Amino acid sequence: MSLTNEHLPLAAGGFAEPSRAEVRDFVTLLKPRVMSLVVFTALVGMVLAPGGLHPVLAAVSLFCIAIGAGASGALNMWWDADIDAIMTRTRGRPVPAGRMEPGEALAFGLVLAVGSVLTLLLAANWQAAALLAFTIFFYVVIYSMWLKRWTVQNIVIGGAAGAFPPMVGWVAVTGSISVESVVLFLIIFIWTPPHFWALALVKSEDYARAGVPMLPVVAGEAETRRQILIYSLILVPLAVVPFAMGFGGLTYGAVSIGMGALFLMLAIRVFRVREGAPAIKAARDLFAYSILYLFVLYATLLGEALFSAGA
After folding, report:
1. pLDDT digits (tens, 9 = 90+) for 104-126
2. More confident site: 210 or 185
3. How many CA atoms lie within 13 A of 208 on its CB side?
4. If you average pLDDT over residues 48-57, what whole number do you get?
5. Cα→Cα distances 79→39, 57, 88, 148, 169, Å
6. Please, which residues have CB within 8 angstroms of residue 7's CB and are 6 or more apart in sequence?
7. Residue of 142, 162, 23 whose CA lies nearest to 94
8. DSSP state, 25?
9. Which CATH number fits domain 19-177: 1.10.357.140, 3.30.450.20, 2.70.50.60, 3.30.1780.10?
10. CB 300, CB 252: distance < 8 Å
């Protein structure tokens, strides 16, 4: 894929025509739904971290993490435009739909990436800025450019990119990585495979058409269901660790156990129900619930921390 806008039509006088992209197309590049999860988990990391930042610096740091996530999304859509055009789930994105030139998405993503890292360096510390830069690099280069198209373990290893935000938030406050921040990272890291593979079961034909080696395409649906169950069995007790370590309270302990039990029940259902519409529904239900599950876990940690601070 070209790194420039070499195919951008020229108007009279040899100048490139104005972009056809609208504001909403640039917003789409940011992957706002993913960004919202990034912002929320990063906020939890910042609030749970010992010490504190000036409220203005904390807000700027959180904004930088959000923009860094948006930069990753834009660069991912630039790189994946060829396979996005094949998949029904993604063909309406700005670049494959022809509303935006590839070079525009590339330039937009690079500017946001550099700007977010440099601003976080000024607002927080070099450790947080370096970790944000690594997160962007990991998602764009390690996952999008390498793992996604070459290995069935793409989402397992690549899931680390989505797990870094709470750690970046923590480091922005403290300047260092702690065991607690690693636990916050690991919860999202282990959550990602069953979450994403549930979707991949529903969209396996899309991935097969695009030649993306997702687990259902390469190893089959039976193995995917088995792996979902295995990761769910690891995730549920892992999510209780914040309570065991003391940075999650009694409320968090109860919520993590109760919601974890339902997560496991849905994973078992995906494992057992393997044919027809009921199988698709089981996978969709797990995918939808997994989003709620992660949100409630982190919301509970956030609520407890804010309550303790106000008490």
Report:
1. 999 999 999 999 999 999 999 99
2. 185
3. 11
4. 91
5. 24, 33, 17, 11, 27
6. 101
7. 23
8. H
9. 1.10.357.140
10. yes
Confidence class for position 311, pLDDT limits 50, 70, 90: low
Q: Find tokens 């309406």 and name the residue.
A: 92
In the chain, the largest separation of any two C-alpha atoms, in whole Å, equals 70
H or E stretch including 241?
helix 241-245
Domain positions in the chain are: 19-177, 178-311
The continuous run of DSSP H or E covering 132 comes out as helix 126-137
The 3-state DSSP class for residue 229 equals: helix
- Burial of 200: CB neighbours in 10 Å, binned 0-12, 13-18, 19+: buried
Amino acid identity at 189: F
3-state secondary structure (DSSP) of residue 16:
strand
pTM over 0.85: yes
Q: Tell me, what amino acid is at 241?
A: V
106: burial class by Cβ within 10 Å (0-12, 13-18, 19+)? buried
Q: How many residues does the chain have?
A: 311
